[in-house]
Protein 1
Amino acid sequence: MIPVPGFAGRRVAVFGLGRSGMTAARALKAGGAVPVLWDDGVSGRLQAEAEGFEVEDLARADWSDFAALVLSPGLPLTHPAPHWSVTRARASGVEVVGDIELFARAIAALPERARPKVVGITGTNGKSTTTALLGWVLKQAGLKTHVGGNIGIGVLALPAPTPDAVYVLEVSSYQLDLTTSFAPDVAILTNITPDHLDRHGGMEGYVAAKARLFQALGPDATALVGVDEPETRAVADGLGARAVRVASVPSPTRGEGEIFAVPGALQIGDQRIDLSAARSLPGRHNAQNAAFAFAAARALGVSEAAAVDGLLSFPGLAHRMETIGVLGEVRFVNDSKATNADAARQALSSYDRVFWIAGGRAKAGGIADLTDLFPRVARAYLIGEAAGDFAATLGDTPHAVVGDLAAAVAAAARDATAAGGPQVVLLSPAAASFDQFPDFEVRGEAFRAAALALGAVPPGATP
């Protein structure tokens, strides 16, 4: 745990008692604060009471007595309307912060010689893979590495800082909206495509939230920016010479990037680094993720040889283009983390022919941006709320509305087996999970269970 300083003896309101809220409360208490907790759900309040926290209905509380409000990143700060707790806090002059901001303050309170290194990673897509990949590379190189934030362990639940440690943190736009002083030593923006627009008031607000990653960078910090989209190019332009640009080839940005990422290789100036043996990093998007991880590792003092070795040995990230089983010549690929069309594009682009399982709760635009990839779809199996709209967009592309995931896996496996030869059954939903599953992880595990129930053999297992 990372104790949070600066609030000793003072009452701090904590609203939202999920993973980040409870870890924030524990870290505040460890730093001497008096956390006052509330959640709309009874289970969260009961857990807080069981741990001995003060639980009070914040709608009836005296807000003039609070030093800060720690807001769950899942609750709206500005759009479509501020959460009522935000309104109450602002009316009383109480600052509103999140767990990443509390972490930043805990690090800043340390003597400079005692501070660890920090990497912050954000973007619409690729941030989880880049976070996991960089964490792996650093650990393989022998660095004391803690990985968390918006992935895995909540940031304040990570081990207490030591000067030899590196924190590799995935940070979401929701978390960044709640920061003012987060100052990573290496800041990575992978890409920006439309997502969460309702929470940020449109694309301009979404881009501004992502760009907050760079708001407090120190003079020696490294800024790595993917420049395949006009929005990220604008962010890089705003950073000027501080930005190390990472582009894919071919791309409209050719000539602008300082690092070019192509499937199986990185191009840095005249130097070409071969990554063709990295089985867990297929496709253009993973080449770009590898470029970020490589450049970040080098900025943290890892040798080129050690960084490359780490990239080549990376085992892959769960729920992101993860081969979870093989049935005969049919391979089942779990890409449940693809919760929007751009993320699904990355998976679809990596295979010549797929039996595609898609659907859920659609994001704005649905799958209209994927029409150029429909010729790769042998047949699509549509699930959830988006099934009807996705079917209309697919048009003449073979498809079936099957409703639920288990039925989709069974139908796709049957058709892929009948097609003969090596085939891929791909779960890449291009939609959120919330209509049928609590999150993408549960959806991915349901896909895994359905494939294994059909007799698929996990990778490395003996059939």
Protein 2
Amino acid sequence: MSQKNGSVIDIFVVPKTFAFEKYTEKVLQTPDGAIQLRYPDAKPQEIVALAESLKSKRATYLNQLSVREIVRTIGLAAEKWTDPHYHYRQVAEKYLPLMTGYDATQTTLELKQYMRLFREKELLRFVNSELANTGMAMDEFQPNLSGGFSKFYGPDLLFQIFSGNVPGVQIWTLIMGLLVKSAIIGKTSFAEPLMPVLFVKTLADVDPRLADVLAILPWSSQEVTLTKTAIQHAETVIVSGSEQTVTAVRDFVPATKQLIRYGYKIGVALVGRIALTADYYRQTAEKLVSDLGVYDQQACLAPQSVYIERGGQLSPAEFASVMATALDNYQHQYRQATLQPAEKLAINKLRQNALSEMINNQTTQMFSSREDLTWTVVYHDTPDFQATPLNRTVHVHAVDSLSDVPNYIAPFKPYLQTAGLAVAPQTLMTLARQLGEVGVTRLCALGEMNHVSAAWHHDGGFNLLDLLRVVDIEANLDQYVERFDEDVE
């Protein structure tokens, strides 16, 4: 990292043989002082040159590697991040909380767990879950069930537009691109431009030539010409972010190119009466609060509405009160990031709406932090679905049976993603089928909503297969060319 005149951080990385004509700096004011962020003042013609350079390096190096070799290199890079003394991990732990406002201790804990997803054994399991045989069909033609042969091909260049709401989330699709042997231009958000850059630098520590097929840099969403230029020269576009971002990019991508979108999603939690016994209710509340608290619900994985089943030793209203206490304790352990004016306005509006509802319906209750806006729980005695302004705000709904929940969330099918469950084992499969029918794509244990496995199917799709095209050699061609072998009778 560049250090001059105090803290100057390069929030970009490009192949070592490539240089931009002009660089600029952005000053970030933090409680610990100003940080200068340096990045290229890119021009469209430079994006074109960068794209061609990356494609060339991909053809001469990345495309010659086996998937097994790529996995090994990524795994070695990920292992470096398991060392608390590793230089780039220390940079991340120092600067990410300052850039994002998230609690420093929580950021460290989450990064430790997250980066372990990309160790060699986890990636091997992931590749085998989608491609089998360690992705050998990416390396050469393999026999298929129809009697011929098939080979997978990834895009020559991926253009990825990263979201900036959760530190490190960009690394997921970055690694997916490498596994399908694609060069990558990654556009980062100024909200969190650091982690993908640090990871590419780690790859350079292990294999500089592999790192040279990647370029990561930020530019404003207003720089439409740069975005259109990158799209023009990429074979596939992946965009992650808000509905506004995803929609804007969709309009730029022609029908001849592949577009993969990861837009706004909603999480829900379902708590059965069996998890509300004297032995379990406090633990259940703490797990649910951890799902709410990690990165202040900014990840699509976090719950916004919670459904509590009646008939337990604690009523749903009593459990909402226990949740409130747990949220207050959580705030003392992991502080909330500083709220922006629009976020404060949205939370105040939610609280005002809850107060109005309480006047008309005495069963509605609100529990909230008194001195500030750090957490809010709104309890409703009737089932419904309501999204929240995030930042540790949640709606809690009482239901007679968890089997009723799918009816209330079904209208939001395009936006549903993760459901965290604490239910009786004999009800799990039936409930899972019902939730799957209405659009939920991931079910996990309560307390693990923000922690995906290496082999999860993002938004219900495939991670690698969705990036690949297949070339088939049909059996008749294989048999036909055998006739031209002079040694065959």
Protein 3
Amino acid sequence: MQRRVRKWALTASAALLTATGATAAALPSAAATPATVDGATVYQPIDGFGISEHFGRAAIMNGSQGLSAQHQREILDLLFNRTTGAGLSILRLGIDSGIQPTDPGGPNATPKYTWDGYDKGQVWLAQQAKAYGVNRFYADAWTAPGYMKTNGTDANGGTLCGLSGASCASGDWRKAYADFLVQYAKFYGQEGVGVTDLGFTNEPDWTATYDSMRLTPAQAAEFTKVLGPVAAANGYKPACCDSFGWTQQKAYTSAIEADPVARGYVTTHTGHNYASAVDSPLPTSKRT
């Protein structure tokens, strides 16, 4: 969102620092240096800033592991309070195999979903964030459930069965995986939290010893065309592809942009900067 604000005259000065102990010495303060910020000059839109508390981090924050109500509020204020804290406005939710951990009997079998209303503390955190005014929730899967993948396990990579180059004796799990992701978002809707962005992969170009799944750029574009209609029919917007490097993400974005069907479904392109830093825009006019 772009906002026009008035010019501010800012003055910066170094604080007087003192150290305790026998060798304590005060550092001299620097001369005041004026700086002018013109809020009317727009360089790029920024939708917001956020965090993820996946892998049980949210459960550590709430009372299930002994954190007092006072300290819960202190942490929540630091994260989400727009006056006294960071005022974060995006929460990224981690999807794992928890809502259907076992094979229901094949990709065409009736799903056997389960929901505990807790999701390793993420439901609680999302509800708390919403109370602070957060209204953007990005639900993203690190992997499809292991029985849907070529390696049969949640961890250590593997590819979604049914994608080009990934055939499995168990069959084609692409549509079942799309339904799985949408059902996860629906469960959050039941808890009063509206998922706004839905992702099907996290670092598809990196094999981790924890939850992970490999997808090539072409496979990511292919699955986007499977998830897209299912997500759109239920009011969710796909995001892709959370590559482990910004430069590497450009290949995924390019593959999606090159396919007119896939391009029409992805509303936000996502990348990380572990392998490479953000040095130029992704090749898309969509949000990144």
Protein 4
Amino acid sequence: MTTRPPEGVTRRVRAALMHKVCGDEEMFALGASVARVVEMASSDDQGTHDLAYYVVSDMALTQRILRLSNTVQYRTASGTPVTTISRAISLLGFDNVKATALAMLLVDALDSGEHAGSVRVELEAALCASLVGREMARHSFYQGAEEAAICALFKNLGPLLVACHEHDRYREIAALTAGGKHTAGQASQLILGCSYDALSEAVLAEWKIPDVIVRAQAALPPTAVRVAANRGEWMRQVAAFGLDMARLMARSHEPADTLEAHTLLLRYGQALDLDKARMDAMFSAVQEGMNALLQSMNMEPAPKTEPEAASGLPNVLLLATLDAGEEDQDGVHPSGKPKNARELLLAGVQDVTQLRASGEGKVNDVILAVLETLYGALGFRFACVCLKDARAGQYRARVSLGEEGARLQAGFAFPAAAGRDLFHLAMENDADLMISDAGSPKIRDLLPAWHKELLPDAKSFIVLPLVVGKAQLGLFYADRTNTAPEGVPPDETSLIKALKGQVLAALAP
């Protein structure tokens, strides 16, 4: 069962996030623009005129809509180029242009900044979900079904805003979800104090978006979906299905043939009148639509996987980066690492998150809490955090845990001047390392003399650099007296990175 932070803590986290995503000038302008486009009605010529005028008033938006109109998917049979927005609306359809304009507003407002990679992934999920909504609307008997594309577009608004404005929280939620014990809704509830869906609802309500769209963001029960009783419930189902389908398409080059696609069909098939043939056709149509949409925006598709960058490291250290292990359960590995390390790390992430969210944890408290988690969850015999001492021109251990901690802490120091040893290379490349066998010749060649003398019996160890911007602040170090061939699997890696991220956030000016 998920352990929630105290209500007062989550209320502060939620309030701070809402203030950030709704309070600053750029987000206010985005909300106003979104509300204006959503208000445009498709029932009369005035709505078409208003939409055309809105698009034409923005040169970049005009160019993108025209590029979309002239892609292979929409090009007219005669091949005549589309050169006016009125013609584009006629060709693409009012609701398609309206949803596309909203999508482009999100791209322009959010697709930039320090965390552009994560934001791009969430943007593409939103765009793809919108296209699923559009395809579903084509076969619906509900009047105004086209609005499902807008509902689906906003279904991913919560993750998108958190990735853009609270990236540390975004990483923590991803780490909890990767652990396999929490859904995205449960993890976001734990970290933010509200689920991603509830955040989407709250922001859209703040932007004065119509209630039918706001209500469509509400989470569905985890069981098989029943046939909707009305249009609003149907749009809620389509929004959820659209995002689930978009997530699958982001992970797989051949999504139609996966077990996940079969699971989606079992959950949504009866409610949305889907069979395998229709769902396969939808995968194809949505992918074609995504290609056209990204082409019109001059956007390259995000990769299906995002490998950790570790350029500049020797090959032997590239192989030692995290994510190189296999998961196991129960007991302890021969190295001393508990086989339930994931659960222990997850508990540590929750504790440290609550500590920081409470506003009562000082930097030293956060560092110590993370160090204790790493030490206990991964079964180390000695662990320390090593920070830069600018006056002394060296890095030295400031706090430690484990056997002979005081003696080893006193000796754990090395020059701040750049070098080609393992510790300097890790910091220069901001590469988290798990050395499973410190006795291998290539690793020993990269170990500095001070480490060999101070810790001659260290057979495996971990190095987590603390780098903010380009400033190398120090590192976490922890070791064992046995080799660790089990490595560190991806879910544990995500949790370790989330822990380190809390320390970086605490250290950042």
